[in-house]
Amino acid sequence: MDASLDELTAALLQAARRAGAGAADAMAAAESSVAIDVRGGRLEKAERSESVELGLRVLVGCRQASVAASDLRPATLAAMAERAVAMAREAPEDPSLGLADPGELAHGWNLAALDLVDPSPEPPPSALEAAARRAEAAAMAVPGVRQIDPAAAWHATTRVHLAATNGFAGSLARTSSGLSCIAITGEGTAMERDWCSEGRAHAADLPDPEWVGRRAGERAVARAGARKPPTGSFPVLFDERVAGSLIGHLLAAVNGTAIVRGASWLRDALGARVLSPGIDLWEEPHRPRIGGSRPFDAEGLPTARRAIVRDGVLQGWTLDLSTARRLGMRSTASASRGPGSAPAPAAGNVTLTQGGEDRAALMRAMGRGLLVTSMLGASVNPTTGDYSRGAAGFWVEGGEIAWPVNECTIAGNLRPMLAGLRPANDARMHLSHVVPSLLVEGLTIAGG
Fold first, then answer.
1. pLDDT at residue number 2
2. Nearest CA to 374 among 330, 406, 335?
3. Torsion, Cα of 202, 208, 213, 219 (10° steps)
């Protein structure tokens, strides 16, 4: 436990009690990070950040308010508490508000099993610069790459302590290291770009900078000469890099906040089929070395593996305490929050069932259609599920990539799209959202 963060949350709770709060919880978050950008063989940007943020949520009866500050002086903590209590007394009543019962709280968790903190020393800026330079050089060595915009390397450490007047107290720390490179080919209006970015909790798990740079360069060069696809109804294969966005729309639709408001295209789908038969979607909060892992949620409840979808059938909503009480259900220990906000439900790590074929096999099965590798803009109606997004990628003919595509729009409705999707087997297991490439039939493509 980080003693300084522990002391700050304890001081906030004491100040809240003195100010007249009936109950309260407090969060202290500290982050340190260093990031290096390289362009044209030269150091372009070096950033170092150190921050601490404090947050306090107070409850006065069935009313609540949240405040935050980065000033650690005792007088500021007292002012935060007084202001929060005054705000709560003016807030509307909500009978669903309240802390967890002490008997529901998490205890005895094993942070070592999650392995979220890299034991290696923080890399010096010179080492990050060297890694970014290596990635850039590898990308520039790919024939056809004209420039890099930019290559970057970074490292960050985050520590959080949460405490509440119901007796909960818990700390969590994590590290992250990453490399990225954006490569550009062509000139003027024929310019195309693509990228590669890799992040890990432990720096030793990162791929070599040369792999990152080469991958970015090869992806960019493959996009040279992109043009619009034909217009019509075609199958669309979402590459693994963008397929997670489809599952993200499903996660948003089963979020308890959307369900309580009646603003979800899946509001009537509990117990109904929402994915193809045989496909599961699990929330897995205890995966080692994964950024979204956590032993407790933002309300101190113990997290556990749970099925969101099993054999294609929706099993339940994603709930915090408030949304669960409104729906007459139990929290799924999915509360998330920042220091300055109240808890709200959010899914963490999720894993979608993979198929038995690789992406190339799905392209052959598709025959003629669009392979999407990047997306821009979004128009998704959260109530109806109507879906429209800008896309780029490759046109597929005879099951093989024929030519690169840009400036097109794909449209459909999420419910039939997800209910008929076909997964590949190429998901990256180090990501928080483990989702493979996904084949969807019968979308409308607006091209040339």
1. 47
2. 406
3. -90
Picking from 74, 226, 210, the residue whose alpha carbon sits closest to that of residue 142 is: 210
Convert the pLDDT of each residue in 370-401 to its tens digit: 999 999 887 899 999 999 999 999 999 999 99
- Segment (H or E) for 8: helix 3-19
Asked which of 221, 240, 270 is the last residue of a domain, the reply is 221
Q: Is the peptide bond before 423 cis (omega within 30 degrees of 0)?
A: no
From 230, 249, 269, 229, select the one nearest 421 (Cα to Cα): 249
Residue spans of alpha helices (H) in 148-266: 209-222, 240-253, 256-261
List C-alpha distances in Å: 42 to 96, 131, 138, 202. 56, 13, 15, 27
Nearest partner of 421 among 366, 382, 374, 384, judged by Cα: 366
The Cβ of residue 390 has, within 10 Å, a number of other Cβ atoms equal to 16
Query: Are 231 and 358 within one domain?
Result: yes
- Give me the domain span that covers residue 93: 3-221
Q: How many domains does the chain have?
A: 2
Least confident of 2-6, 115-119, 276-280: 2-6
Q: Which helix (H) or strand (E) holds 158?
A: strand 145-164
Whole-prediction pTM: 0.94
Regarding whether 309 and 203 lie in a shared domain, the answer is no
> Residue 280 in contact with residue 353, Cβ under 8 Å?
yes
pLDDT at 188: 85
CA 110 remoteness from chain centre: 23
Taking the C-alpha atoms of residue 57 and residue 319, their distance in angstroms, rounded to an integer, is: 19
The confidence score (pLDDT) of residue 448 equals 65
C-alpha–C-alpha distance, residues 68 and 51, integer Å: 13
